[in-house]
Predict the 3D structure of the following.
Amino acid sequence: MPFWKYFRKWKDIKIIPNFRSAYYTDEVFLTVNNLHLSFGGVLALQDITLEIKMGEIIGVIGSNGSGKTSLLNCICGYYPPQMGTIIFKGKKINGLPPYRIASLGIGRTYQNIELFEGLSVLENLLTGRHLHMKGFLFGLTLGALYFGAGQKEEVRHREAVEEIIELLGMEAWREKPVSECSYGMRKRVALGRALAMEPELLFLDEPTAGLSSESREDLVRCMLDVHEARKTTMVLVEHDMDIVFDICDRIISLDHGIVVAEGHPDTFLTTDPISGMIMETGSETKGSGQ
């Protein structure tokens, strides 16, 4: 049976419960309050306020330049907002460097795939384990000696990576250099590297951009497998409206740095102004897809 037949189509107005709602709780995981970001005289984000709850898959949509990636960059510590607060698990995180935010349990993928092409798939995934490795001097000593504690450390990280390889269906590619992988497989490796950090909250920035229909379906299947196996809370920045409306519990729509709508997918389907913007957003990507 074709993959998409397991999901509802976004054009169908009939309300059907989201199939992933079993992992959705009312516990607030991350809160953004009155966030403002500007570059000179350009306002990228204006008074952004939102909540992310544990176990959700949230879709963030909007046209190009609407502030989607800027929002992710603020949360992950790359852009310091001029105003507002970001609270993750009860702790204020804006102002912290990206590595500190990552160590708290926030991971992400990027629009541009930055992998080590000379390394194998397995070795690329191991680079995502650096947060869980011993301190530099102690770790360097363990790695050089490679016996006892050092050997146990190596085995522990390799076991974690092998579990991700199996989860994402990359067994046949594990020893191959990334330079020999297809674009779709590289996207999967990037997802696996983010998972190697063991994030509790995972941001996916346009993960299916540039993929063929078959590769897109494979990657979405991997994302759902991850969500089911690890109960990872996900925030998906995506232009493909079929994917957003099929798998997301809630959707946040941005326009010129402002949250213009938020709610269950079916709320958007019955709201004419938002539906128009959604159709426009989806057509942008589908017209430029590879």
Observations:
- Residues 114-198 form a domain with the Rossmann fold fold (CATH 3.40.50.300).
- The chain has ten helices and ten strands.
